[in-house]
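Appendix B. Chain record.
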Amino acid sequence: MSTPDVDVDVDVNQNQNQNKNVKAEDILCPLAEYEECDFSKLLEKPRLLNIDRQRSLDERSLSELSIGISPRHATRAIDLNSSRFFEQLDSICSPLGRRSGFSTPRSQIGFDPHPMVAEAWEALRRSLVYFRGQPVGTIAALDTTEENLNYDQVFVRDFVPSALAFLMNGEPEIVKNFILKTLRLQSWEKKIDRFQLGEGVMPASFKVLHDPVRNNETLIADFGESAIGRVAPVDSGFWWIILLRAYTKSTGDTSLAELPECQKGMRLILSLCLSEGFDTFPTLLCADGCCMIDRRMGVYGYPIEIQALFFMALRCALLLLKQDDEGKEFIERIVKRLHALSYHMRSYFWLDLKQLNDIYRFKTEEYSHTAVNKFNVMPDSLPEWVFDFMPVYGGYFIGNVSPARMDFRWFCLGNCIAILSSLATPEQSTAIMDLIESRWEELVGEMPLKVCYPAMETHEWRIITGCDPKNTRWSYHNGGSWPVLLWLLTAACVKTGRPQIARRAIEIAEARLLKDHWPEYYDGKLGRYIGKQSRKAQTWSIAGYLVAKMMLEDPSHLGMIAIEEDKQMKPILRRSNSWTL
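Structure tokens predicted for this chain:
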């Protein structure tokens, strides 16, 4: 394995000294106006990364981005067009007013937070991983009672909530270091057996090796060659681009994204995803186990998690790519793909009561471009549970769509990212939140949040998982409850004007998470039991809780992780039943 000649390390000590007196609220920045434009407009004129550091979201952007706040869901109504919109939104999301930091060293406002918050920050800081004196990430788990396996490594996807927590607390240096170190790892030669992976593949994880004899440190990366199933992480590159944009939005520092190395890194990732082949769909074809669900779980094909992350990464890349010759070429390809992808996902992955009834009545073996059942899905393949699960008002993006196959399972991460990226229309975003409320016991229960629903069991479990003993029914990825998903739910709630849903979920988690020592996941239909193979002191469970709390306390943090809807594709807004008293 060869390493690049160019070293893109940063001077962390200098950054730390500069940031000691910086307030968290001073480094926030808004969803800028360039995010509100039609995709195609980016081809017409140069795009300037113009960041207003006085607030995280401008009034007009957030008023359109937020679908609304129902009298039933809010303590009092607010005027979305009011100049005091931020104060009104903050007062609804946080009865105690706008604040951030939770009495951490960066906090500037004194108040009495939940006692878990201080414990969570201490645990998060203990998880920091250093490389040659610089913090470069957080370890997956600090559970000393179990065998390490790969839980002693820094995972790209796992670090995202940790990175957001540090950004929200005014500590961007660790995020910058992580972005640059993983970028350097991307340029390494990547081989599995005798096959060489694509140049743009990002690592799933990396580890710092200490040599006490030679008194030096080296990085070891895993691109899938050591993973269970030997599957490359498709999601790592997408999370990297999303995190780069979050860093830029939070700090106002455009110089990192404008580095030639970062521009090249984005183009390499995009080259893998935008290459032409035999596909007849704009979605990405993936192997099982290529994302958060990293074991055999029947998510091969076109999983919703990857498609939503793909969409969000494309939109982030549009905002970060420079308008040079190479950048313009990729912008053109991205714009075309976004239009096709948004249409495909909103048309064929979306399921609500009407669509379910239409599929139930599908005719099969249709031929020609006028076919209604375009994927030749057999109505008899509809699972019985979906008829009871689907509420009268509500809907969601199903797990997978491919020829003659629809996976009707609910996947939390994909649906939340669909809301945050505006892959979901305002109406669809509302329906997703309605579904969560209507099916609270099934999706939240006694510990938020189900990674997927429902669980597979008996013959289906044996065939699809290969009798995986870790993914038994209502455990781990097979219907397990994952506290890390709290931050995604909270962000989606804030974006849709439904903070009370997030507050309710956080209160449930607070009753147990600290007492149970921050487990990785919970088992059981209601999430009542600590997972049978769950690690304790799981870092992203800790960070996910902190991000959820900080986002509720200061909704302006949403700006770093949410993107405005394209106005040219914005449909007529129709409110569902959950908006009425």
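Further analysis of this model is presented in Appendix C.
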